[in-house]
Design goal:
By secondary structure, this protein is of the alpha/beta class. Helix content is about 45%, strand content about 20%. The chain folds into two domains: about 160 residues, 3-Layer(aba) Sandwich (D-Maltodextrin-Binding Protein, domain 2); about 140 residues, 3-Layer(aba) Sandwich (D-Maltodextrin-Binding Protein, domain 2), CATH 3.40.190. The chain contains twelve helices and eleven strands. About 45% of the residues are buried. Belongs to the bacterial solute-binding protein 7 family. Keywords: Signal, Transport.
């Protein structure tokens, strides 16, 4: 029979307390599915894998996250629906896509909202970003953290884009929502809403002339194989949300929820750093792969902003309180 003196018993209880505080002891054996659109090796996939590692470590190996990259579990709309139904636990997607659930998320799709990554971080990590994620709960979604896709640029297979006028007439794939359709129309181009897993085939088969995405997406998805020209326009910044099924969340213990929330926050910082460190290198890699890269002059960038201002005004008017809050926070940062 094992005998405990007071000192031994106190030490044992303290050890148990530490384990419980860490969340590991409260965790059950669970495996979660994590769906995203970009392929293995993309910074978003790397962030998802980092998240999986952190969950395993923080739960003492009891909780596992299996990453399904490259749209293997379907497009964004399918993934969100499955998450709400509880058949997929985690989804990572452009935050603006969540406007179909909570309209205020449209703010993240407004062109030229952020001048740089520092501004974006301040908004998504601050009161605005947290308030928006909190609004998802009534839609069966738990918002955990923001990662990033980054600043978007335009590619096409037909011609170099040196001026705003060069964009006119191109048939461009856009994320399926009204803001993206409208800004492409405002430039005289033809918007084609399309789920991301279909984009490569659409480009290859010439159903569309081009698309717009950050360099990391263009490189990781090998769009350079079917696109000749890249114009660095930085016309839109995409934060991405890591979201979780509320249906499943409600079955978890407080310790398990803490493991997931803490891991998501830590992984988000890792992912953003990886993405930003790779950005300039990705453009160089695209050039090496044969893409012709053009950079808008300051004058053309200003012209592009002016062309898109009516789109910003139109859609901003539908979410006045959220846009005003974002603009007020940005004004403080820019002083």
């Amino acid at each position: 029979m094992i005998r405990f003196n007071r000192r031994t018993l106190a030490a044992a209880l303290a050890a148990v307390g530490l384990v419980c505080a860490a969340g590991g002891a409260a965790a059950q054996e669970r495996t979660f599915k994590f769906a995203l659109q970009n392929p293995k090796g993309h910074p978003l996939e790397m962030g998802a894998q980092k998240f999986a590692e952190l969950v395993a470590a923080k739960s003492g190996g009891k909780m596992a996250v299996k990453v399904f990259a490259g749209g293997t579990l379907g497009g964004d709309a399918q993934n969100v629906s499955a998450l709400q139904g509880g058949t997929i636990e985690f989804v990572q997607l452009n935050s603006g896509i969540l406007a179909s659930q909570v309209k205020d998320f449209e703010v993240f799709d407004l062109p030229f909202l952020f001048a740089n990554a520092k501004e974006a971080d301040a908004i998504v990590d601050g009161p605005v970003g947290q308030k928006l994620h909190a609004k998802l709960a009534e839609k069966g979604i738990v918002g955990l953290a923001y990662v990033e896709l980054g600043f978007r640029n335009i590619t096409n297979s037909k011609k170099a884009i040196n001026t705003v006028e060069d964009i006119a007439g191109l048939k461009l794939r856009v994320i399926p929502n009204a803001i993206n359709v409208d800004w492409v129309k405002a430039l005289g181009a033809n918007p084609t809403p399309m789920a991301f897993p279909e984009v490569y085939a659409g480009l290859e088969q010439k159903a569309i002339d081009g698309q717009e995405n950050p360099p990391s997406v263009i490189l990781a998805n090998k769009f350079f194989e079917v696109q000749k020209h890249l114009a660095v326009t930085n016309h839109q910044y995409n934060p991405q949300s890591i979201i979780f099924s509320k249906k499943i969340w409600d079955t978890l213990s407080e310790g398990e929820r803490k493991v997931l929330a803490d891991a998501a926050k830590e992984a988000s910082l890792y992912q953003r750093k990886v993405n930003r460190d790779k950005s300039a290198d990705d453009v160089q890699e695209l050039q090496k792969a044969g893409m012709q890269v053009t950079q808008f002059s300051a004058a053309e960038q200003a012209k592009l902003r002016d062309k898109l201002k009516p789109v910003i005004d139109k859609h901003g008017a539908a979410i006045p309180a959220t846009l005003a809050e974002v603009q007020a926070e940005l004004a403080k940062l820019r002083k």
